Amino acid sequence: MDRLKETIERIEPLNGEVMEAARARQDTLTKPLRSLGVLEDISVRVAGITGNYMPELKHKVILTMASDHGIVAEGVSAYPQEVTLQMVYNFINGGAGINVLARHIGARVVVVDMGVAADFAITNKTENFIDNKIAYGTANMTQGAAMSYDAAKQSIEAGIEVLENVLENGVDIVGVGDMGIGNTTSSSAITAFITGEAVETVTGRGTGLDDAGLTRKIEQIQKALDINTPDRGDAIDILAKIGGFEIGGIAGAILAAAAHRIPVVIDGFIAGAAALIAYELSPRIKEYSIASHLSVEAGHRAILDYMGLVPLLNLNMRLGEGTGAALGMGIVDASCKILREMATFEEAGVAEKE
Questions:
Q1: Strand order in the sheet with 289-291
Q2: d(C-alpha 294, C-alpha 310), whole Å
Q3: Spatial separation of the C-alpha atoms in residues 255 and 278, rounded to whole Å
Q4: Coil, helix or strand for 251?
């Protein structure tokens, strides 16, 4: 049995009995019934995911997956391709937005090279960098498939492997994010194709395109869809035709988290497109997925609506990297601490509602 199929078959429904126990405890805590709203709902869902009616999220990990995209040759990004490499070094050195927010919530960042179009000069072994390079970026999807079918599957299985490797040091909750110049173009293509929304509806300005650049980006996405004609019934084919290696890697990590009963916090638009691929492979991942925020990117709402996910935050963010996931992870942790640490009426000696 191959690794992807085995992972998908291990994804089970949430534990209903544990969720009932968590809800029952929430209803005895020193507060008016259901007065903490979504915070209560999150903790109950995490209980069902983990199988523990009072879950504790000590070990937090954010996986930031990076890759380059051949479509940048068509002028779809305001930044040059070499920024992907430069930003990965910034992640490794702890200087990026995701590093700051990860430190704030007590999470470790693991950066994964899924397909950056350059080699990294890293002489010292570092636990926060994993080399899973499949190729030096994808091909230009306006000229044919972004990658082979085998490479697409390989990228998903590489993401599964990353998640399972970091389990060795403990993971109670995982966030997924991205880095890759040109990847909003691939994400828009995936979103339009899977959700059925028009390309112009789900395509945004990415790194800051002007009006002419946005028009060009929309045209190139439509061209890629017309040339490649992905198979709507095969998520791996969709990824191969119009996706990216980091998108496949994130999809794999989401599937693996669900298989290991670990809550996974989804970042913004690119991570959302990866979640779409994972969802098409196994709809059950929805129960394990927590949408951290609503991105400014035009297509993100379409992804969340299609999957039936409600974002925790709306902060007009569109940085990626896992930054939204880090903030969302902090809220999930807070919800579980309320469930676990808050006193019941009986413990506090507080009179209940008559």
A1: 129-131, 107-115, 60-67, 173-179, 264-266, 289-291
A2: 9
A3: 6
A4: helix
Measured distance CA(274)–CA(268) in Å, rounded = 10
Measured in degrees and rounded to the nearest 5, phi and psi for residue 123 equal -90, -30
CATH topology of domain 60-332: Rossmann fold (3.40.50)
HEC states along 138-157? Answer: CCCCCCCCCCCHHHHHHHHH
Whole-number pLDDT of residue 207: 82
CA distances from 50 to 16, 46, 94, 231, 262 (A): 11, 6, 30, 35, 6
Instruction: Using the predicted structure, report yes or no on whether residue 198 has a pLDDT greater than 60.
Output: yes
Per DSSP, the three-state class of 66 is: strand
Which residues are paired to 112 by β-bridges?
65, 130
**Side chain identity, residue 86:** Q
**pLDDT digit string, tens, across residues 307-345:** 999 999 999 999 999 999 999 999 999 999 999 999 999
Q: Out of 74, 280, 297, 321, pick the active-site residue.
A: 321
CATH code of the domain made up of 3-55+339-348 = 1.10.1610.10
Average pLDDT rounded to a whole number, residues 268-277: 98
- Write down the pLDDT at residue 29: 97
Determine whether 321 is an active site residue.
yes
- Cα gap 54→41, rounded to integer Å: 13
